[in-house]
Write a structure and sequence with these properties.
Strand order of the largest sheet: 7-6-5-8-9
Number of helices: 9
Helix content: 25-40%
Distance between the termini: 13 Å
Bound molecules: phosphoric acid mono(formamide)ester
Strand content: 5-15%
Length: 307
């Protein structure tokens, strides 16, 4: 049984196949409208979500399948003390594939030990968010036509930002990719991302505290939210919450070909005036999330001989 717990569970060839499948789904949606007929996706969300949960559900519906699940731990038997393992084992009796979001890092991996159907990590604490990364990869590919020779600026909360950690892991596998890590010192990427991912990959990277000076270098600017829910105190959050706000002034020296991405939700880190700039691609990115999740559901069900 194959699960998707981290982006590196997929080879580069498998990522290429998922992207090709997503592009075919975009071009020929009618070909896929009954592919998952009578199959069920369970969305087990122990943490809030708009895009991930609803795009998974829309993805399964557009494949002709059905969905069941819960959107908060309080409405599941986790609130009575049921373990993640037991929940996964039970839900395997009711669904053919499970997407799970959990505040605890590693919870989907624990679930995968007992599940008898594929488990998809839909975000675990500050660790990883591999389907967001597949969404980001599809967006980069559709915008740039390649994953090589790109300079990517990652801006905001790089310490707790699981989407950033997953994207660095994924993009550092391609050729001549450079990272510019833009954050306050207190929110810089965890040491393991540097020692276990960036340095072994040989990718160039720089850590800076301001975005203006590096803007002209960037092919992609990946903005992130300062995440209130990950801070240990409100005081710490308030200190950093307005650290970076992307507005039209800051884009003055940016390339015409820049792609501005954001996993969303946004709070105030991108001015709404930027939304009308043709370089802003974050809403297209959210739509791509549905297509790549359709491709992933089909692929995991096929690998598990469930389709
Ligand atoms: N990008 C993302 O994970 O959004 P949600 O938290 O709304 O699912």
């Amino acid at each position: 049984m194959r699960h998707l717990l981290d982006t590196t569970d997929l080879s580069l060839g498998e990522i290429d196949e998922l992207i090709s499948l997503a592009e075919d789904i975009i071009e020929n949606p009618e070909k896929y409208q009954d592919v998952c007929k009578r199959k069920k996706l369970a969305t087990l969300f122990f943490e809030p979500s708009t895009r991930t949960r609803l795009s998974f559900e829309a993805a399964m519906m557009e494949l002709g399948g059905n969905v069941l699940g819960f959107s908060e731990a309080a409405s599941s038997s986790a609130s009575k003390g049921e373990s993640v393992e037991d929940t996964a084992r039970m839900v395997s009796c009711y669904a053919d594939i499970i997407a799970m979001r959990h505040p605890l890092e590693g919870a989907p991996r624990v679930a995968a030990r007992k599940a008898t159907v594929p488990i998809i990590n839909a975000g675990d604490g500050g660790h990883a968010h591999p389907t967001q990364t597949l969404t980001d990869l599809l967006t980069i590919y559709r915008e740039k036509g390649t994953f090589d020779n790109l300079t990517i600026g990652l801006c905001g909360d790089l310490k707790f930002g699981r989407t950033v950690h997953s994207l660095i892991k994924a993009m550092s596998r391609y050729s001549n990719v450079k990272f510019v890590l833009i954050s306050p010192k207190e929110l810089s990427v965890p040491e393991y991302i540097k020692t276990d991912v960036l340095e072994p990959s040989g990718c160039e990277y720089a850590e800076v505290e301001q975005m203006e000076a590096v803007m002209p270098q960037l092919d992609i600017l990946y903005m992130t939210r300062i995440q209130r829910e990950r801070f240990f105190s409100e005081e710490e959050y308030l200190k950093h919450k307005d650290a970076f706000i992307l507005d039209m002034d800051k884009l003055q020296n940016a390339k015409e070909s820049l792609t501005i991405m954001h996993p969303l939700p946004r709070v105030n880190e991108i001015s709404t005036l930027v939304d009308d700039d043709p370089r802003a691609k974050y809403f297209e990115q959210a739509l791509n999330g549905k297509y790549i999740r359709m491709a992933l559901i089909i692929t995991l069900l096929k690998w598990g001989e469930l389709l």
